């Protein structure tokens, strides 16, 4: 089993399923959404993040780099990525954490022990563990091992997914989880490909199959002006969700914001908004009303 990398473990999470939860973020995603709030989640391999404002020019990183891949310049530390092996030694010695590594391997038993330490908060709030990303379904063997291990300990399990996955894998995961947080972004397949890099055909088929299986699903919609916040787009999504078989899912409308722009800078890339903008309160309330018009339970946030 090839171990995936974990790029974050969030304790006391209250928006990733019911109750107080611990959320485990796995690296790697088949989508490349233009608005992604966790750009460090997209690549499955380890990555280096650098915050120029934290750098004090101590040069400890330069001294210890076994590949001589780091140089102090007037703009801070510059990494030669052709030489860098991402060993992480520079991050270990950086006194101000200006250099950080994103992505660490955990064994199943080690991760279960970390989750168990949150058991008091989980049990008192009817919470649990959520596996997010990136895309956790990119790592089915590891994910299923974790889900089964948590199930053996009667811990509520949630999987946060974009739905772009092998259908059989998704159904096997459904046997070992109590809740899916399923992203729905855009209904038009070409528009979906423009904004995420892939068509939504498989995603929509998987959502139908998952609904037919009786799995409990919450629909999450990243709500973005100039992408999917117009009335036509909202009605298309509401019509599709209301027509799903089985129990009607709850809908969470998640308004876009650009606060993750600094993460792109840390990764050495540029955050381009592509004319994306935060939806107005009026647009949010209009979307809420449309979903409710179709008989769906919906709310802003969550």
Observed structural traits:
single chain; 302 residues; alpha/beta; nine-stranded mixed sheet; two-stranded antiparallel ribbon; globular
Largest sheet properties: 9 strands, mixed
Structural class: alpha/beta
Tally of extended strands?
13
Mean pLDDT: 96
Name of the top-level CATH class of the largest domain:
Alpha Beta
Number of helices: 11
Q: Outline, from the CA principal axes?
A: globular
The CATH architecture designation of the largest domain is Alpha-Beta Barrel
Number of domains: 2
Distance between the termini: 34 Å
- Which fold name fills CATH's third level, the topology of the largest domain? TIM Barrel
Biggest sheet: strand arrangement? 7-1-2-8-9-10-11-12-13
| Residue fraction in strands | 15-25%
**Low-confidence segments, ≥5 residues, pLDDT <50?**
none
Let me know the CATH homologous superfamily of the largest domain: Aldolase class I
- The Cα radius of gyration reads 21 Å
Helical amount: 25-40%
Strand-and-helix sequence, N→C?
EEEHEEHEEHHEHEHEHHEHEHHE
């Amino acid at each position: 089993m090839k171990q995936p990398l974990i790029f974050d473990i969030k304790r006391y999470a209250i928006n990733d399923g019911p109750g107080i939860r611990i959320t485990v973020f796995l690296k790697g995603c088949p989508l490349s959404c233009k608005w992604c709030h966790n750009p460090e989640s997209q690549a499955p391999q380890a990555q280096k993040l650098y915050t120029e404002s934290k750098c004090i020019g101590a040069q400890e990183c330069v001294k210890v780099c076994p590949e001589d891949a780091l140089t102090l310049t007037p703009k801070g530390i510059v990494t030669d990525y052709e030489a860098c092996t991402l060993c992480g030694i520079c991050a270990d010695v950086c006194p101000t954490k200006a250099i950080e590594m994103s992505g660490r391997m955990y064994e199943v038993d080690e991760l279960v022990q970390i989750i168990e330490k949150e058991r008091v908060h989980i049990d008192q709030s009817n919470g649990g563990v959520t596996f997010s990303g990136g895309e956790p379904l990119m790592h089915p063997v590891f994910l299923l091992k974790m889900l089964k291990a948590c199930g053996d300990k009667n811990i509520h399990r949630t999987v946060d997914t974009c739905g772009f996955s092998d259908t059989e894998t998704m159904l096997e995961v459904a046997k070992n989880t109590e809740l899916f947080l399923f992203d729905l972004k855009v209904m038009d397949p070409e528009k979906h490909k423009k904004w995420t890099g892939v068509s939504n055909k498989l995603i929509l088929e998987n959502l139908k199959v998952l609904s037919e299986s009786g799995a409990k699903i919450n629909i999450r919609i990243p709500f973005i002006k100039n992408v999917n916040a117009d009335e036509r787009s909202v009605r298309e999504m509401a019509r599709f969700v209301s027509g799903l078989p089985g129990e009607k899912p709850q809908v969470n409308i998640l308004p876009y914001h650009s606060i993750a722009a600094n993460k792109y800078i840390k990764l050495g890339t540029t955050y381009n908004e592509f004319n994306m903008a935060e939806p107005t309160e009026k647009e949010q309330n209009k979307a809420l009303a449309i979903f409710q018009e179709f008989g769906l339970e919906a709310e802003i946030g969550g």
